[in-house]
Write a sequence for this structure.
């Protein structure tokens, strides 16, 4: 009845249960945090804007992004994945989301910054719909906890427009 | 020596009725595990509700050996979500992040492009030859939560099958020799 095997088994089961319980609590404490990040995006330059030989429009931008994500960090935060998309509607597509820049932030100290960058991923439309197209920048963040449930949210910055002519 | 002796004795002293009881309880354990797995499949709507991360392409977010919980809902796929997808001609599913989405207005069909956080370029090189986009049917689910390290058990067992057999043997012996 009280053999070594039984005791080891009971101890192991108890340890795993407690660990799972603590993980669940740690994940729950994240819901008590109500973050309020801020972001500002400026288009400094349109480097070039043209139609590819296959008929898709492509544009290259230089962006200035300044953001403050410090309130996203809690004790259970492993990293914040932050990225900026251009989002727009075309006659054929109800939604187009193009990632232009992303970053992985692993500590609160590095979560307030300003950078100037050209788009990291190519801004290509599926078709030729970018001339004069209205679009918005959306800053998304995905919080990866040390353990438990992941969180995501976004800020939409509307009212940007691409030029009417290729250049 | 004592433990081995006891084990041998308990095997010798087995009776039919006892063997049957143990076989039934073993069957109960196996079937309840199966029931839990199938129930999870129903709840999450994903054909594999739990996956183990096998590569470092999503580091530092997900490391090799982390366990991911998947969920497959009707909600549309959006940029930034971490999806698990199958590519035609590849056996092992891939866990990567969506970076581009083009959703059709008329029928809601989506074209998505993925990339591993730790990879330099997007995933077009991993897709089937000539494939530029993933469609809805390639995607098995999206990651909603995770548990670190637990997946190492499976990785070790797949890579060193001998450990798996030792473990199964030991458990089997324990079931046979245990008296309740």
């Amino acid at each position: 009845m009280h053999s070594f095997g039984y005791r080891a088994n009971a101890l192991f089961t108890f340890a795993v249960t407690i660990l799972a319980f603590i993980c669940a609590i740690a994940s729950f404490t994240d819901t008590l945090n109500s973050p309020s990040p801020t972001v500002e995006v400026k288009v400094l330059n349109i480097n070039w804007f043209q139609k590819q030989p296959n008929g898709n429009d492509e544009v290259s931008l230089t962006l200035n992004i300044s953001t403050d994500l410090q309130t996203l960090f809690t004790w259970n935060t492993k990293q914040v994945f932050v990225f900026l998309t251009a989002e727009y509607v075309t006659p054929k597509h109800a939604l187009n989301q193009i990632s232009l820049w992303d970053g992985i932030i692993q500590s609160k100290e590095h979560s307030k910054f300003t950078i100037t960058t050209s788009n990291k991923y190519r801004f290509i439309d599926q078709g030729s719909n970018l001339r004069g197209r209205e679009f918005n920048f959306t800053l998304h963040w995905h919080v990866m906890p040390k353990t438990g449930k992941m969180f995501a949210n976004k800020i939409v910055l509307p009212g940007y427009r691409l030029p009417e002519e290729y250049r | 020596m004592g433990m081995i002796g006891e084990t041998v004795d308990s095997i010798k002293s087995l009776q039919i009725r006892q063997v049957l009881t143990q076989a039934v309880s073993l069957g109960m354990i196996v079937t309840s595990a199966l029931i839990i797995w199938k129930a999870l499949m129903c709840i999450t709507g994903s054909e594999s509700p739990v996956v183990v991360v096998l590569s470092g392409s999503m580091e530092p977010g997900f490391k090799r050996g982390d366990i991911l919980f998947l969920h497959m809902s009707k909600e549309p796929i959006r940029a930034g979500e971490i999806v698990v997808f199958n590519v035609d001609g590849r056996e092992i599913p891939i866990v990567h992040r969506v970076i581009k989405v083009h959703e059709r207005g008329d029928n809601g069909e989506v074209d998505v492009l993925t990339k591993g956080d730790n990879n330099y370029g997007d995933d077009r090189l991993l897709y089937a030859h000539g494939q530029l986009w993933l469609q809805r049917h390639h995607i098995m689910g999206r990651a909603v939560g995770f548990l670190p390290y637990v997946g190492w058990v499976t990785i070790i067992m797949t890579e060193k099958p001998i450990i798996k057999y030792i473990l199964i043997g030991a458990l089997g012996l324990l079931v046979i020799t245990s008296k309740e």
Notes: Chain A has two domains: 1-32, 35-161. The CA atoms of residues 138 and 156 of chain A lie 4 Å apart.
